[in-house]
């Protein structure tokens, strides 16, 4: 029976680990705040008290952590994954981090003989719970193939997109398009509303043509209902767009709209919207257009 | 048998008129360059030698013209539709024009007792040929209902979105989202290419998540194949974005990304790209990023 | 004694007319609301009760009107300047209008044998009072030379910049640079304030180098004192940037920053800031940065 | 006689050190490529073979280095300034670096009892040669006063702007305004040229009003003469704007135009313009407007 160590049992990690249990893997989980491991144990998994304990006997190690420094500490740091793992283990980092972190992890793993993939996911908490995540995988093709049984327990669209770091690059592109699309839909809605159009009808007809997109389908109804509970928080999208901008700058790539929407997300956050769903970009377009000012009621901006 | 006058037998108008013939209407067509009416006659329609002759006995009049000045001349001008039409006729303007032109036409029609709708379409030549257009309709709801038999012969998604001009407003929003989405996809592709990612695989996985959109599905394959034959020309999208900017400015609505992408389309056109498909925004991102410079080979910009 | 008709005795026009009286011209003034002519009479000018009466015997006609439609009505309209003026008169339009309006006026004047110049001014009410305006003049060089005695009574920097319309084009460029510079200074001030810098000291050192500009010298002190009384109103700058955007679009010229700042001015206006001085762009940067929200206290935006 | 160690004898550092010699200081210089110290010796200075040797007996240490990593290595690193300097020495870092580097240096110096200032300069090579630099100084006020004799030998406008790091923050704001102003002037010039205006005359009248700025005065003549030899290289401005964007992002400050112009500079560099003067932003506006394409002749972009 394949042993899978799962590091990081947060909003996304926990349901991903549960799906691995359900698929028949022997899952041993570790989380910094240990209470989060209880749910895993209740579903038939095991609990470890340290990263080293979790990975020591694992065939496969999945990490699902908030940001690059966490990955660097947990994977590359003292007592971390690479130090403690078996030399024939397979490391799958599902965190969203800078592509260079993805490459650095792969290189450090290879130096110890450990196979590694970067495999960030898209699809949100719902996708994690339903095992329906999109997973964009970077790394060696053979390693990718050997990881498929584990990846298939967590996602439904699994694509190998290139060498180490490529998964992170595609995730960055994903976050760029998502942010831009939410902003475009927000601008369209404020424009339509200002000109007296029936918004529900407009969304219906827009969704059917070349303007159609997943934001109109999945997010617009909540936006029209003025429900901005996350979902995916502005704070996290802000972090992800920081990765996009840095990676594009390094590559000399011009992102006119991407840079602009990153500024709008940063502004929304500075105005106190960090813990709202990213669809709250709508509130900012309303404010800029002098139509509503709900941002102002959000209270003090972050320090 | 309902008589339908069809004014404007261009790339879009001709197949729309043919579908009306096929649906059993008695279609009498007029086009400024009369040769374009031959195809209509060949399919069982009739030909008129003037706007006035075309509309004189028509129950329904459909106009499909390039721009606001054409609509103003053909509909409101001397010897035009409103002057010549029966007082119980129904006018459907399918042209893409400024919402205020839509309202002005409706008001002028009403002053003569003629019912009118603005009903711009989305879906391109393919949608027109297949009778699968999306049609966004502004005007009185009862008039809308009376127009449905004619509209259904031309489109598959037909939505009443509000009062006179609202159809044009939704079309403007449609063009805003489409331009922005093509640009976002272009930026993502150049970014991914610069970082060595397999573009086909990336498009596949991006299309499946919250970044998914109709541009990734319908346009990205041709973009990757570097086929920029129109389709929908940059020149026309530039015209449409002029409508969007003007209408938003009048309404005091802020369109940060919309304004930006309108500038990028205008620049692409100034660099000689006017007759390419709008997906040629990709060429501009490549040029701005110093990766390829195919724009430069386009030759002299327009005067 | 040269007779000068002066049409439009507003905030700018009145002091300009007074300076013409002071310079020894026989000035006959007309204003739509006739009370504004009293001050001119008190200083030794004369009053006319219609445009026609004012211009009938004038050697030189100066018009100083709010916008293109006013110029079209007063100059080109029935009973207007061109209809009533002598055929050897000289028309100087000091209004800020679209360059094409400047050209149209010049062409219409020429058709009647009347010499015409477009001569918009910069320098504000203070410059008008002190006769220290900058005047950018478009039209025939000989006509320009014949107009110098009149122009020198109103301004201190007087430059012939090209053919008919060129004065308006330079004024448009002036307004583009001014708006952009106020925004850049605002962004710098908010950035410096957020990072704990002494703003007065910073303005001093910035003004001395390559970052130095007239906004830092003349406007920054009031901005730091949070005094946003006009001066030059946001509403007017919004109108002027509309001219810039339209003229650039027609010429196929790309104005990345110009377009962006026009959107910011439009947004400031939509949020209720139309009657503040244009330096109130500072308030918007503060709001976008979550530092202060004084815009919100401005009350309802314009309809 | 006050001993001044000068580390970094580049384009800026060499003339600054020469001016210190001229002002009567005992200057001992160090440069990584030692040949650059010859000129200093020829003018009466001394040469050191290592940082440690240069600073060992110095009363004042001036560092003038390219970027943050250089400052970190030379000042904070092994065998560096802080390790080798006397405990009563005064460190003046004139490099342009991130404000946080400025603070980190000050904190590390204080921990060793060494007084430190961040004192970046503006004014270019000409300003350095003539001792006419603007110097923006962050740090303790008393330390600032004790440094004035040395600073006055190098600059003519010397302003204390706040605590440690504040000098760097003001320099960042300076670079933001300079880049934005060059871009605004470029947009205005292309707009004016496209509409047939006499550019020399236009620059004259623009420079006299509220649009006036140092770029119009000092840079526009070379731009009109199409001379883009540096001066200040695009590569360096790109580096500096990276500091601006990072510092603004950390502070939550929104820089709409600043972000936009940073993207335009990055694009100019990606298109091969990195070693041109920053006024080459003009070439990019011309290219975007389809008027000239000299960027394309620049050859391959940087890797």
What does this structure look like?
- The structure is a homotetramer of 303-residue chains.
- Chain A contains 15 helices and 9 strands.
- By secondary structure, the first copy, chain A, is of the alpha/beta class.
- In chain A, the strands form 2 sheets. A 6-stranded parallel beta sheet of chain A has the order 3-2-1-4-5-6, sandwiched between helices. Chain A has a 3-stranded mixed beta sheet with strand order 7-8-9.
- In chain A, strand 8 (133-138), helix 8 and strand 9 (155-162) form a beta-alpha-beta unit.
- The model of chain A has no long low-confidence stretch (mean pLDDT 94).
- The interface between A and B is large, with 73 and 73 residues.
- Chains A, B, C, D: Residues 165-282 form the 3-hydroxyisobutyrate dehydrogenase-like NAD-binding domain.
- Chains A, B, C, D: This is 2-hydroxy-3-oxopropionate reductase.
- Chains A, B, C, D: Keywords: NAD, Oxidoreductase.
- Chains A, B, C, D: Residues 4-162 form the 6-phosphogluconate dehydrogenase NADP-binding domain.
The CATH superfamily of the largest domain in chain A is NAD(P)-binding Rossmann-like Domain
The fold-level CATH name of the largest domain in chain A is Rossmann fold
Number of strands of chain A: 9
Fraction of helical residues of chain A: 40-55%
Task: Sketch the major β-sheet of chain A.
Answer: 6 strands, parallel
Secondary-structure element pattern of chain A, one letter each: EHEHEHEHHEHEEHEHEHHHHHHH
**Based on helices, strands and strand pairing, what is the structural class of chain A?**
alpha/beta
Count of runs of 4 or more consecutive helical residues of chain A: 15
- Taken as a percent bin, the fraction of beta residues of chain A is 5-15%
């Amino acid at each position: 029976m394949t042993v899978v160590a799962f590091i990081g049992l947060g909003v996304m990690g926990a349901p991903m680990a549960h799906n691995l249990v359900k698929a028949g893997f022997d899952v041993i989980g570790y989380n910094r705040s240990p209470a989060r491991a209880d749910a895993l144990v209740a579903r038939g998994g095991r609990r470890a008290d340290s990263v080293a304990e979790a990975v020591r006997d694992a065939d496969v190690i999945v990490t699902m952590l908030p940001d690059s420094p966490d990955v660097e500490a947990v994977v590359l740091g003292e007592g971390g994954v690479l130090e403690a793992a078996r030399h024939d283990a397979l490391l799958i980092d599902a965190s969203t981090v800078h592509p260079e972190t993805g490459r650095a992890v792969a290189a450090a793993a290879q130096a110890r003989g450990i196979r590694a993939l970067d495999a960030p996911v898209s699809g949100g908490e719902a996708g994690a719970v339903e095992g329906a995540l999109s997973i964009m995988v970077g790394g060696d093709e053979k390693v990718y193939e050997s990881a498929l049984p584990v990846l298939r327990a967590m996602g439904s669209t699994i694509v190998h997109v290139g060498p180490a770091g490529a998964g992170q690059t595609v995730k960055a592109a994903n976050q760029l398009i998502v942010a831009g699309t939410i902003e475009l839909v927000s601008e369209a809605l404020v424009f339509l509303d200002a000109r007296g159009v029936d918004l529900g009808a407009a969304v219906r007809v827009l969704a059917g043509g070349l303007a159609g997109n997943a934001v109109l389908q999945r997010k617009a109804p909540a936006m029209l209902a003025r429900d901005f509970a996350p979902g995916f928080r502005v704070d996290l999208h802000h972090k992800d767009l920081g990765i996009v901008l840095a990676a594009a700058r390094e590559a000399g790539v011009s992102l006119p709209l991407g840079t602009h929407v990153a500024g709008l997300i940063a502004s929304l956050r500075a105005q106190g919207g960090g813990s709202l769903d990213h669809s709250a970009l709508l509130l900012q377009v309303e404010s800029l257009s002098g139509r509503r000012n709900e941002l102002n009621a959000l209270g003090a901006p972050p320090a």
